[in-house]
Specification:
By secondary structure, the protein is α/β, with parallel strands linked by helices. The longest helix is centred in the C-terminal third of the chain and has 22 residues.
Length: 327
């Protein structure tokens, strides 16, 4: 069990207004609602406006947090934005959110671990606060994947959507949230999930250089359904706990069939699993906070509950975390 002095005290979320349904996708590529739902569980996803970017989504999620929990962000001393779709290479999304919020005395950094990003962001925030260097950190998971999605590729365009979530992590040594963690990376498998940019020879063979999202879904699926169950075992052992102690499993909402396979391999009930993909699709670093907030708003997640978060994706990276919910 780790020594933590940090507690998650509030959560908020935001998704763009525009919906992209399976029926609408049928007009863009050779697909249909039955085919998409059968293979992914996704019915629709949200799409950002042309003038709406990741920093806007992160900002709105933070405002939602403030409104619901009556929290002040004026004394936040670090903003961590987890995303693979930043507005710019520089400045960071966190800096842009800082400007929108008007917080003058805060650090601002981005974390790019793709679909594992939010779990990594929480890990960093917990370490910063538990070390004594920080007292109040805003962690955001936000994406505008629609801006890097190839809508001529039916294997990927059916999956991705836009949205964001935010949590406030504060110093609290009496009721810490963080119980254990497990991190991992397999960069040798990176070619199975990427978006090209500066390098044209990242791997032995040439990559597809289109600045659009490229995924070998079959290989990522095989990797996730073997890697995540092993990681879950490590997270629980590190906390000297078992799956029977977990109230809710909150995995990255990549694909419902993938989540079902992970639950089957770990013998964890799907009815105790939270996911956001049915209405929002795969939103990368935003899926876990969106899923968690759905559980909170629906009254499923209650104070004292033990939650198992697990992100996995580009890198290939994965990150698991056991937390006690007590906002």
């Amino acid at each position: 069990m780790i020594i933590s002095k940090a507690r998650i005290t509030a959560i908020g979320s935001y998704v763009p207004e525009r919906k992209l349904t399976n029926d609408e996708l049928e007009k863009l590529v050779e697909t249909n609602d039955e085919w998409i739902v059968k293979r992914t569980g996704i019915k629709e996803r949200r799409i950002a406006r042309d003038d709406e970017h990741t920093s806007d989504i992160g900002y709105q999620a933070a405002l939602n947090l403030v409104e619901r929990y009556d929290k002040s962000l004026e004394d936040v001393d670090m903003i961590i934005a987890c995303t693979m779709t930043p507005d710019f290479k520089t400045p960071s999304v966190a800096s842009l959110v800082q400007a929108k919020l008007g917080i003058k005395h805060t650090g601002a950094i981005d974390v790019n671990a793709a679909c594992s990003g939010f779990a990594y962001g929480l890990h960093v925030a917990n370490g910063m606060i538990s070390s004594g260097f920080h007292r109040k950190i805003l962690v955001i998971g936000a994406e505008t994947l629609s801006k890097i999605t190839d809508y001529e590729d039916r294997s990927t365009c059916i999956l991705f959507g836009d949205g964001g979530g935010a949590v406030l992590v504060e110093y609290d040594e009496k009721q810490p949230s963080f119980l254990s963690y497990h991190l991992g990376s397999e960069g040798e498998k990176a070619k199975n999930l990427y978006c090209s940019d500066l390098s044209s020879c990242m791997f032995e063979e040439d990559i597809i250089h289109t600045n659009k999202f490229v995924q070998n879904g079959r290989e990522v699926y095989k990797w996730a359904v073997t890697t995540v169950p092993r990681g879950i075992k490590e997270v629980l052992e590190n906390a000297a706990m078992s799956l029977s102690d977990v109230n809710w499993f909150v995995p990255h909402s990549a694909n419902l069939r993938m989540i079902e396979s992970i639950c089957q391999k770990t013998d964890f009930p799907m009815e105790k699993t939270l996911y956001s993909l049915v209405e929002y699709g795969n939103t990368s670093a935003a899926t876990i906070p969106l899923s968690l907030d759905i559980g909170v708003r629906e009254g499923k997640v209650n104070n004292g509950d033990i939650l198992l978060l697990y992100g996995f994706g580009g890198g290939l990276t994965h990150a698991g975390m056991l937390i006690r919910w007590n906002t």
